[in-house]
């Protein structure tokens, strides 16, 4: 009887799930999704404050959902609200830019954010939207990885067009699958302090859409969408990143800090088995344009950023994400496109500016 009830409950959960989460209503009667509290950035950031108010704590308690003894972490009904009758939401947040894209209660959250991290190595589950693209070489069965991408919903990965172009596929092989939930490519299972992640998930590629104007001008429109053969189940190590419009971002300000992360894979080199990260800063477009003027023409659809020391996006992977942490969530700001003299502090790395392609993205995804 218990088993039947459990199966029924599971079916019920799966049916009502959006992506992988069950919908619920919070104490402000707002609809959200029932998730483990560390995955709920707005409420988790209240807990992380040194002095949450009684009202905030009561709000969190009353936000509990799906009470279960399976997990030591409580589930809460996650919305942008952090207190009774108040929302952190700006008017812009309420704009639903595409019903296919996750809202900020689902995307861009990072359990690792509140942990102290030293150096460049990422902690397990950090940047859980990062995927590796798997190529099948023409002469072998063993899959190889050269590029990365970012999961933007439960069906699509955004990457650089140059990673999946016909020219690249002719040289490197077809992109047949993506690997999600990866941390250390040398380890079968990733563990830290006795906690282990599930094994990475491999999903076949159903379709690749390269920007129509890629290739017409050198290094322009370096963006592509990969549609996965099936929907991805979100988990602590597999989550989507937010797009800028999800948090109402419309432009980049001077001084904007970004994080670029990856395994250091490019079409020609490979550097680290473990996902690494590096902080970089926005470079004024005019400055970047002048710097590159003798080599390539750059425009508003490019975004330049540089690190304080060598490293640059050589620590990222072609096609991987340049991310901004904005109002509690990670936003996909750029896609690693190219850089000259990788590692030289005198040449900022150039990224595809995701702000310029949000319309293209929403027009090219389907359920
Ligand atoms: C929220 O607002 C409604 C209507 O303004 C009010 O009746 C209710 O008591 C408020 N809830 C809390 C917990 O303050
Ligand atoms: C971070 O990366 C840079 C450049 O790759 C390297 O020089 C530095 O030693 C790294 N720092 C740590 C703490 O690993
Ligand atoms: C990655 O995995 C390999 C194989 O298990 C292990 O030897 C290595 O220490 C790991 N690297 C890190 C940084 O955890």
Can you walk through the features of this model?
The structure is a single chain. The chain is built from 7 helices and 18 strands. The two termini are 36 Å apart. The strands form 4 sheets. Strands 5-6-7-12-11-8 form a 6-stranded antiparallel barrel. The longest helix is centred in the first third of the chain and has 15 residues, at 2-16. The protein is 16% helix and 28% strand. The protein is an alpha+beta fold and 367 residues long. The chain has helices at 2-16, 41-48, 54-62, 161-164, 166-172, 285-292, 358-363, and strands at residues 17-18, 21-25, 31-36, 75-78, 130-136, 144-151, 156-159, 174-180, 191-192, 195-196, 201-210, 224-228, 257-262, 276-283, 302-306, 321-326, 329-338, 349-353. The chain has 3 domains: 22-78, mini-chromosome maintenance (MCM) complex, chain A, domain 1; 130-240 and 359-363, Thrombin, subunit H (Beta Barrel), CATH 2.40.10; 244-355, Trypsin-like serine proteases (Thrombin, subunit H, Beta Barrel). The relative contact order is 0.14. It binds 2-acetamido-2-deoxy-beta-D-glucopyranose (3 copies). One 2-acetamido-2-deoxy-beta-D-glucopyranose (NAG) binds next to loops. Its EC number is 3.4.21.-. Residues 106-366 form the Peptidase S1 domain.
């Amino acid at each position: 009887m218990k088993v039947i009830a459990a199966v029924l409950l599971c079916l019920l959960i799966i049916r009502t799930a959006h992506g992988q989460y069950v919908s619920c209503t919070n104490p402000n009667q707002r609809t959200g999704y029932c998730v483990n509290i560390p995955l709920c950035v707005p409420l988790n950031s209240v807990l992380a404050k040194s002095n949450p108010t009684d009202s905030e704590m009561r709000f969190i308690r009353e936000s509990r959902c799906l009470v279960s003894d399976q997990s030591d972490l409580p589930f809460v009904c996650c919305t942008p609200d952090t207190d009774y009758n108040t929302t952190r939401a700006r008017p812009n947040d309420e704009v639903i830019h595409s019903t296919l894209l996750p809202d900020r209660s689902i995307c861009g959250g990072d359990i690792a954010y509140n942990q102290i991290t030293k150096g460049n190595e990422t902690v397990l589950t950090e940047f859980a939207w990062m995927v590796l693209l798997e190529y099948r070489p023409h002469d072998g069965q063993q899959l190889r990885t050269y590029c990365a991408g970012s999961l933007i919903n439960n069906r699509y990965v955004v990457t650089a067009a140059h990673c999946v172009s016909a020219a690249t596929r002719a040289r490197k092989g077809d992109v047949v699958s993506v690997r999600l939930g990866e941390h250390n490519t040398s380890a079968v299972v990733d563990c830290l302090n006795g906690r282990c992640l599930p094994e990475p998930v491999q999903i076949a590629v159903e379709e690749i859409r390269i920007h129509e104007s890629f290739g017409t001008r050198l290094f322009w429109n370096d963006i592509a969408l990969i549609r996965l053969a099936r929907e991805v189940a979100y988990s602590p190590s597999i989550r989507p990143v937010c797009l800028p419009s999800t948090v109402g971002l419309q432009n980049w300000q001077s001084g904007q800090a970004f994080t670029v992360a990856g395994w250091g894979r490019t079409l020609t080199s490979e550097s680290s088995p473990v996902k690494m990260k590096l902080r970089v800063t926005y470079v004024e477009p005019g400055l970047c344009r002048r710097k590159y003027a003798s080599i390539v023409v750059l425009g508003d659809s490019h975004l330049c950023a540089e690190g304080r020391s060598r490293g640059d996006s050589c620590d990222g992977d072609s096609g991987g994400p340049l991310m901004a942490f904005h109002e509690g969530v990670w936003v996909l700001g750029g896609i690693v496109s190219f850089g000259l003299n990788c590692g030289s502090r005198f040449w900022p790395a150039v990224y595809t500016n995701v702000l310029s392609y949000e319309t293209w993205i929403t027009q090219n995804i389907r359920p």
